[in-house]
Write a structure and sequence with these properties.
The chain is an alpha/beta fold. About 50% of the residues lie in helices and about 15% in strands. It has one domain: 3-Layer(aba) Sandwich (Rossmann fold), CATH 3.40.50. A 5-stranded parallel sheet has the order 2-3-1-4-8, with helices on both faces. The protein has a 3-stranded antiparallel sheet with strand order 6-5-7. The chain contains 9 helices and 8 strands. Bound molecules: adenosine monophosphate. Adenosine monophosphate binds next to helix 2 and helix 3.
């Protein structure tokens, strides 16, 4: 099985790339942010607990997040692994993920890090639109949809995430550098980190990612 941890700041393109990787490699995308949004939509207890953190741009407490991921990974069946997008985001989560995988006799294959400078992250988050049906992502300037407000892929409505306000965006980028960026060294020390220049076209980045993942497969 292949477990790939996709790293990068908010707006670096993790979600877009994870979705393409899912199609290219047949590995399911496991996105913690999407799982939280599903809990909100279904009005679950976990969703109610997580909501105020997500709305502020803060991280949801580790024990809640880890329990949610553990449950999702227990349902992978014969998927052959997963592309983890947005998890782990703290050292404690990374350590728990290592334990979780060890219990399954598995380990992380590689950690591609999509590197984008922080001023560009903010510009990207500012114009971001997400499709209601499946979470396809667009941008006012960088990748506009063919018809404003409508998803090219499935025709559903595009909306701006509640946590995509300017204040929350700044907070999320700040939280990323304080709490998540230390993970880069964690994975660098384990010789799992591969840095990819994220300030290029979606296709170029995808090509590099596929190559990196295939090289460890
Ligand atoms: P994302 O869709 O990955 O940008 O995540 C949206 C929000 O969900 C984040 O700003 C956090 O509030 C929360 N979240 C997602 N993943 C995690 C995680 N691994 N740990 C804690 N909070 C998370």
């Amino acid at each position: 099985m292949h477990f790939v941890v996709l790293m990068g700041g908010p707006g670096a393109g993790k979600g877009t790339q994870a979705r393409l990787l899912q199609a290219a490699l047949g590995l399911p995308q496991v996105a913690s942010g999407d799982l939280f949004r599903e809990h909100f939509a279904n009005n679950t207890e976990l969703g109610k607990l997580a909501r105020r953190y997500v709305d502020r741009g803060d991280l949801v407490p580790d024990e809640v997040t880890i329990a949610m991921i553990k449950e999702r990974l227990s349902r992978l069946d014969n998927a052959g692994g997963a592309i983890l997008d947005g998890f782990p985001r703290t050292i404690a989560q990374a350590e728990d993920l290592d334990l979780l995988l060890a219990n399954m006799n598995e380990r992380i294959s590689v950690v591609p890090y999509i590197h984008v400078d922080s001023d560009i992250l903010l510009k990207r988050l500012a114009g971001r639109w997400t499709c209601r049906a499946e979470g396809h992502v667009y941008h006012d300037f960088f990748s506009p949809p063919k018809m404003p407000g409508i998803c090219d892929v499935d025709g559903s409505e595009l909306y701006q995430r509640d946590d995509d306000t300017e204040e929350t965006q700044r907070r999320r980028i700040d939280v990323y550098f304080r709490q998540t960026a230390p993970l880069l060294d964690y994975y660098r020390e384990k010789e799992l980190l591969v840095e990819i220049d994220g300030e290029r076209s979606i296709d170029d980045i995808q090509r590099d990612l596929v190559e990196v993942i295939r090289s460890v497969a």
